[in-house]
Amino acid sequence: MKKLVCVLTIGVVATGMLPAMAAKQDGGDDGDLVLLKQTGRAFTRVAKQAVPAVVFITVEKTVETQQPNVRYNDPFGFFGLPRPRQPRQQLLRGQGSGFIITKDGYILTNNHVVGDADRITVKLNDGRELEAERIGTDPKSEVAVIKVDTDEDLPVLETGDSSSLEIGEWVIAVGNPFGLSETLTVGVVSAIGRNDIGIAEYEDFIQTDAAINPGNSGGPLLNIDGEVVGINTAIYSQSGGYMGIGFAIPIDLAIVIKDQLVAFGKVTRGFLGVQLNPHEMDEAMAESFELDEAGGVLVAEVVPDSPADDAGLEAGDIILEMNGETVEGNRTFRNRVALTEPGKEIKLKVFSDGDIKTLKVTIGTLPGDEAVQQQAVEVAEKLGLSVRELTPELAEKFGHEMGEGVMVAGVEPYSAAAQAEMQPGHLILSVNRKPVTTIKEFSEALAEVAERGRVLLRVKSHRYSWYALLRFE
User: Fold this and answer.
1) Spelled out in words, what is the top-level CATH class assigned to the domain 270-365?
2) Taking each helix axis from N to C terminus, what angle separates 439-448 and 370-383, rounded to the nearest 10 degrees?
3) What is the pLDDT of residues 119-131, one digit of tens each?
4) CATH of domain 53-68+87-267
């Protein structure tokens, strides 16, 4: 099969060259060939400009795992007793890419590359390997910032304007797929504004067919001028490899997150205080509310004493515009609110009971106790467990009801969660008999048991539920 593909490729290339060759022999116009050469030189120029500023990142993390129960030739097994499990340490390694954005060594990459690493090593294009400091990570957007210290200025990549990208525009991905450094692939912008991928909590991805493979994560997506327009983050694949669908975080969003991480080590997001109706405002919904055309977002509930409540927003209102710009769906609106600086006043154009009105709202700060969140993260890591909010799509996929609990997103092998037979797709209904339906409730309940060394979870699959007592150190 490989040979057939090669033969076909050569045949296509040769056939494509014939008209140009004939034209040249006849003294005709060879403008197409000149144009191709100019395009090729543009890619070469981008490569020479970008490669020196792209880095190879390796990470290490030590985790404690439990030895699995093995009863073969086990004296405890004779009495039907489980063998005492001794925790053992396992060194996990990973790799990814990043790119230098300042001469003094600040580097942009992905949260999933460096987020929980104990040690981060950066290999520069000149071959030097340097220890890196994690400046800050933001799991909600998948952006992370690390820094290396050197005595001289480092090569940097200039950032472009991702908001001006158009579908069909040339883009170039640079990174270290499978550890192969200085790899450049070319494609086009396939789509923009992808916000329903399920990779991060706040999504606005650029989709591209430029080949992105494992190890490319955190590398730059460049325009034809060599400017960064995105951070390569994920692929859609049924095989684990390239299938023509890759996703990158828009650089405009990444820079906003980067600035906060560098300045404060964390990200503060804007808060409006509304729950939006899961069903988008299509023509049928618009007709039901006597709205002339589909559009906007429907307010399902207003949080008491929130900025939205103070401004007079009510359940059943339809938000049509924010600061004069059309609102185009729940996720887009949610992203725009989150990126608004707390304390800033915005204007909302609202359709309410048949009337159009404009409300002024002072954006608040998205609630979240950082200490509680950190305690919860530490306990969850010890349990070998990660969770996510239950969305209508996930509820339908796994056979759950909305509002039942939080969904298990991942389970570490040999962890306490794995020994309790927990699996991705299961629901956690309660923590120490306290019902949990949101990540915030789950985090608060988990933080309360941080000093106890054990937690009682009520877990549910699509068939039945059970209680699981998980221990941790």
Assistant:
1) mainly beta
2) 80
3) 999 999 989 999 9
4) 2.40.10.120
